[in-house]
Amino acid sequence: MFDKIYNRLNNKILYKKGENVYINNKEVKIYKESVEIGDFTYINGGKIFYAKIGKFCSIGYGVCIGSGEHYVNKVTTYPLKNRVAGIHGLVDFPKQKDSVIGNDVWIGNNVCIKQGITIGDGAIIATGAVVTKNVLPYTIYGEVPAKLIKKDLLMNK
User: Fold this and answer.
1) Contact between residue 152 and residue 138 where contact means Cβ atoms under 8 Å apart
2) Known active-site residue 70
3) What is the mean pLDDT of residues 82-87?
């Protein structure tokens, strides 16, 4: 069950959070009302746009999750329709998709997770990684762009 966090000025929903969620309000900016944060998750810093975050996640400083995207195959990458009122048929933003972060995920500092990405349960994302593809459960991903560093974290070897 999620609590809805409202904007005090206009009474709109800012985001939804579970029980015992810690958000460093001085360092974290949540931009979309569709964001959900699961129980016992903590977020130290960064920007969250389109995301569903699971339970017991640990998220470092400077993280960017699910920020907007632009078309790269149009006349311009600039979202004219969103910025210039009253003109129809102009370039718009692509449809935005949630990034889905599983349960018990550890995301290091300064990680960028592209919109629409799924990160499996128990995964670890190394500091500074740029995640452009889905991440398997119980694996470690790192580098730019992020790639598999270690798998089968639950196996004792």
Assistant:
1) yes
2) yes
3) 56
**Rg of the Cα trace of the chain?**
17
Q: What pLDDT digit, counting tens, does each position of 109-144 carry?
A: 999 999 999 999 999 999 999 999 999 999 999 999
What does the alpha-carbon distance between residue 104 and residue 73 come to, in Å, rounded to a whole number?
37
Location of structure tokens 């996640």: 57
Distance CA(5)–CA(85), nearest Å, equals 30
Residue 146 sits at the vertex; the CA angle it makes with 79 and 65, to the nearest 5 degrees, is 45
Phi, psi of 113 (to 5 degrees): -115, 115
Catalytic residue among 4, 29, 70, 97: 70
Would you say 64 and 113 are in contact if contact means Cβ atoms under 8 Å apart? yes
Sign of CA dihedral 30, 35, 36, 42: negative
Number of Cβ within a 10 Å radius of residue 9: 6
Number of neighbouring beta carbons within 10 Å of residue 16: 18
DSSP per-residue string spanning 39-106: TT-EE-SEEESSEEE-TT-EE-TTEEES-----SSSS-SS-HHHHSTT--S---PPPP--EEE-SS-E
